[in-house]
Specification:
By secondary structure, the protein is mostly helical. Helices cover about 80% and strands about 0% of the residues. The protein is elongated and about 55 Å long. It starts with a helix and ends in a 17-residue tail after the last helix.
């Protein structure tokens, strides 16, 4: 079960990043062009949020039950903190992705409450950009101590 769920989580990362890039790109383009906030802008943010929610839920399943790495962490948390790869999985990845999840949800609320289109685009640029940054900084890219391949087979 673990390899299948990990493979799905790994592949879904690309969908989340693509949805985030699309939402962020629409926000920047809308702000620069001074255009109205459109249903397509709202839809891009909604799909980004949904994709990240699904990815986060799958990640929690891995973290809390399926991953042998986090099982090692839970056996001896102190030793895990002295091992860069285990510390990444125990703290850094979880904290970064939780931050990303919070940013995208707070951002969507703040965007909806903005007074005008210019402010919506500005808020979307800030929150979606920060969300993407938090994700990019805490993805286990190849070459990192806890690095994973860019693409996994299911």
């Amino acid at each position: 079960m673990y390899p299948l769920v990990l493979g799905i989580h790994s592949l879904l990362r690309w969908a989340v990043l693509a949805a985030g890039a699309a939402a962020f790109g629409r926000a920047i383009a809308g702000a620069r062009a001074g255009r109205d906030w459109t249903p397509a802008d709202a839809r891009a943010g909604r799909w980004f949020t949904i994709a990240l929610d699904v990815q986060f839920a799958i990640g929690l399943v891995l973290y809390a039950g399926l991953s042998p790495l986090t099982q090692l962490v839970f056996e001896d948390f102190g030793a895990a903190m002295r091992t860069p790869a285990l510390r990444f999985w125990a703290i850094e990845h979880l904290l970064g992705m939780t931050t990303a999840l919070a940013l995208v949800h707070v951002g969507r609320v703040r965007i909806r409450k903005a007074a005008d289109a210019a402010e919506r685009h500005r808020r979307a640029t800030v929150f979606f950009g920060l969300t993407l940054l938090a994700m990019i900084l805490t993805i286990p890219w190849p070459g990192m101590p806890a690095g994973r391949p860019l693409f996994r087979t299911l």
